[in-house]
Specification:
- The complex is a heterodimer of chains A (about 110) and B (about 110).
- Chain A is mainly beta and about 110 residues long.
- Chain A has strands at about 5, 10-15, 20-25, 30-40, 40-50, 55, 65, 75-80, 85-95, 100-105, 105-110.
- Chain A is about 0% helix and about 50% strand.
- In chain A, a hairpin with a 7-residue loop joins strand 9 (about 85-95) and strand 10.
- Chain A is globular, with a radius of gyration of 13 Å.
- In chain B, strands 2, 4, 5, 9, 10 and 11 form a 6-stranded mixed beta sheet that branches. A 5-stranded antiparallel beta sheet of chain B has the order 1-3-8-7-6, with no helix packed on it.
- The termini of chain B are far apart.
- In chain B, a hairpin with a 2-residue loop joins strand 6 (about 55) and strand 7 (about 60-65).
- By secondary structure, chain B is mostly beta strands.
- Classes of the chains: A mainly beta (about 110), B mainly beta (about 110).
- The interface between A and B is medium-sized, with 20 and 20 residues.
């Protein structure tokens, strides 16, 4: 089992460019999440999904969109990148509300 | 009170020492509690779940006090490999029948030879 994987691992964007981060899990988990982690801020939830075809906003959703077309994949899109979106992005998945979350290795994004 | 609040740290302790981390949470309806470990530039990984009766896993002991809304993690006989940031994690009801995890900012531990 690969667990949770993320692509790409690193990316540098210029302001205004767009990109999509891909998260894939092979644990048959229903729930998937996108977080960002910034120094001194801890992990903050961007968007999440409780099943294929569903998405919902988290704590900091502005500037991001997501899609969950297949159960195993959760995509995070940045339509017009801004320097404030420079961060480390983590994807996670879980069986359900009361279970631990498993994280991917992260994507380090720099927006110049 | 912040949703999940932890000791700010950093904690610098010698090998073999016992170290305790504390965490408080604000939502009395929270039902699941965890300690995660995060190494530098890596993803968070589950260290242990925290149960009402308290639980132990080798050198690690976790305690939960629901009345005081307080969670603790005790590490005995610290090893160099225990150096990491420890995240206190609590679930909370976010509406529409869904719970979310709220992460504390973490406490950094450095174990010194």
């Amino acid at each position: 089992n690969a667990g949770v994987t993320q692509t790409p691992k690193f990316r540098v964007l210029k302001t205004g460019q767009s990109m999509t981060l891909l998260c894939a899990q092979d644990m048959n988990h229903e729930y998937m999440y996108w977080y960002r982690q910034d120094p001194g801020m801890g992990l903050r939830l961007i968007h999440y999904s409780v099943g294929e075809g569903t998405t919902a906003k988290g704590e900091v959703p502005d500037g991001y969109n997501v899609s969950r077309l297949k159960k195993q994949n959760f995509l995070l899109g940045l339509e017009s990148a801004a320097p404030s979106q420079t961060s480390v992005y983590f994807c996670a998945s879980t069986l359900g509300d009361y279970y631990e979350q498993y994280f991917g290795p992260g994507t380090r994004l720099t927006v110049t | 009170r912040k949703e999940v609040e932890q000791d700010p740290g950093p904690f610098n302790v010698p090998e073999g020492a016992t170290v305790a981390f504390n965490c408080t949470y604000s939502n009395s309806a929270s039902q699941s509690f965890f300690w995660y470990r995060q190494d530098c530039r890596k993803e968070p990984k589950l260290l242990m779940s925290v149960y009402s009766s308290g639980n132990e896993d080798g050198r690690f002991t976790a305690q939960l006090n629901r009345a005081s809304q307080y969670i603790s993690l005790l590490i005995r006989d610290s090893k160099l490999s225990d150096s990491a940031t420890y995240l206190c994690v609590v679930n909370r009801y976010s509406g529409a029948g869904s719970y979310q995890l709220t992460f504390g900012k973490g406490t950094k531990l450095s174990v010194i030879p």
